[in-house]
Specification:
The complex is a heterodimer of chains A (171) and B (280). Chain A is built from six helices and no strands. With 280 residues, chain B is an alpha+beta fold. Chain B contains four helices and twelve strands, in the order αααββββββββββββα. The chains are: A mainly alpha (171), B alpha+beta (280).
């Protein structure tokens, strides 16, 4: 259990590090992907509902700290989105690569749109069309493509963890 | 009690409520609860510095051959420029002495003690919403919230959050930023604001231009010193477009900052607020 927590915590730290450094270097047309959302969705796709919700919470808190504004909004968005994914993921055929792509795309849309609604709550939504087409949509597409790389990695990490726990439980 | 925590719905509602409380307490920029942020930023800072350093090295080596070609042409141009500048420098030095003497005569107060601290940008990407970047100095180096940040080209922004080893800087093109500015030519006060659409192109907008003022493309904009935030007379940028709405009395202008935010690597922080705290 201790090892599990250590591995998962370092997964969060590593994703934050990648997001804050590499993400900016691979931007296309000034839009950079969001590794934290992609990883949180990938985790949510292969775990139970509460576990994925809390992993989403920690990824969200990491994003909040990186952004440097009010703590808690990204955490709440990702918590709720990952909870929803965790509730339905039993019914999915997860070997199909379109599944993580689909979920990464729509989760990014939902999370960023929720964040926009919360963050400009009192400023008004004058630029909503521009925000949708020029910021949220390109980022969601980028995230969807990125999930093809991130999802197998996350699955591999969890398989290793489960195998390790299984062997130790037998001993 | 234990059964309550096994109820999923209860746990979910509790977490969401707790997040609301956390957001309420961390909403202000210098809130005490921001200490929590150090959990992530302290271990991350040295690694970010390392990766950013390696990245810059790689970028430099890629650009090496391109730079070598342009360097020769630039060298000749620069030599001419140096000659010109030396001539100007003599003039400026003479004026400086004169200015100091006159200032002493008038007993002018200097507005800010210019205690500069240089620093590197270690991370730029923070989602799609904000123009915020991270620098590698923090409260350990005496940085405080709202300290102005400048580069050799002009005004960059202000410090918004301070952690132990790093801090966040909000640039002037961010939607939450607004600067009391002054038109260099006519000395009129205007307000410089970030705009959701313009910031993606690295521009910002100039509001509240008085209707009787004659502004034109190419006019320079500088800080006014009216707010306590920014020192007076720092160059901000240049007007590139003036937009007049028909039927509306006022109009606004689009300003291109003299700082190129995409290629910014090193900045300097003016320590203002830390200085004030020391005073009784």
């Amino acid at each position: 259990m201790k090892k599990r927590i250590a591995v998962l915590a370092s997964l969060v730290y590593l994703t934050c590090l990648v997001q804050s450094t590499i993400s900016g270097a691979i931007e296309i047309m000034q839009i950079s992907p969001n590794f934290l959302i992609v990883t949180a969705v990938s985790v949510a796709l292969c775990r139970s509902d509460m576990e994925s919700a809390f992993m989403g919470l920690f990824f969200g808190l990491g994003m909040d700290i990186l952004v440097g504004r009010t703590l808690g909004w990204y955490a709440m968005c990702l918590f709720l989105v990952c909870l929803c994914i965790g509730l339905v993921n039993d019914k999915l055929y997860k070997d199909n690569p379109l599944i993580p792509m689909f979920f990464a795309f729509f989760s990014s849309m939902t999370v960023e749109l929720m964040y926009y609604f919360i963050n400009s709550f009192l400023k008004g939504y004058r630029d909503i069309l521009f925000v949708m087409t020029n910021l949220i949509l390109p980022e969601s597409i980028y995230n969807a493509v990125l999930s093809l790389l991130v999802y197998p990695l996350v699955v591999k990490i969890y398989k290793r963890l489960d195998k390790h726990d299984y062997i130790h439980a037998r001993l | 009690m234990r059964r309550l925590f096994e109820n999923k719905v209860f746990v979910i509602i509790l977490v969401v409520l707790l997040l609301f409380v956390l957001a309420a307490f961390t909403a202000s920029e210098d809130s005490k609860l921001s200490v929590v942020r150090n959990v992530l930023t302290v271990p991350l800072t040295p690694m970010q510095t390392g990766i950013q350093g390696v990245g810059n090295k790689i970028k430099d080596s890629i650009n090496f051959f391109k730079d070598a070609r342009t360097a020769r042409k630039e060298n000749e141009e620069l030599k001419l420029q140096i000659q010109e500048m030396e001539r100007q420098l003599e003039k400026v030095q003479r004026l400086q002495e004169e200015y100091e003497e006159l200032k002493k005569l008038l007993s002018f107060k200097t507005q800010f003690s210019q205690d500069l601290i240089g620093c590197n940008i270690i991370s730029k990407e923070a989602g799609i919403w904000f123009e915020i970047f991270t620098i590698d100095v923090g409260s350990r180096d005496g940085i405080g919230v709202n300290d102005p940040v400048i580069s050799s080209d002009g005004l960059v922004g202000r410090v918004s959050k301070v952690d132990l080893l790093s801090s966040k800087v909000v640039s002037i093109i961010d939607t939450d930023s607004s600067v009391m500015a002054r038109l260099s030519k006519s000395r009129d006060l205007v307000v410089l604001k970030g705009d959701e659409q313009l910031r993606t192109r690295g521009l910002c907008r100039l509001d509240y231009i008085p209707p009787d003022v004659d502004v034109s493309v190419g006019d320079k904009v500088e800080t006014s010193g009216m707010s306590s935030l920014y020192p007076k007379g720092i160059i901000i940028g240049e007007i590139v477009e003036i937009i007049r709405n028909e039927g509306q009395f006022d109009y606004y202008a689009i300003v291109e900052p003299s700082v190129d935010f995409r290629r910014l690597e090193e900045v300097a922080v003016i320590k203002v607020n830390a200085e004030e705290e020391k005073l009784p």
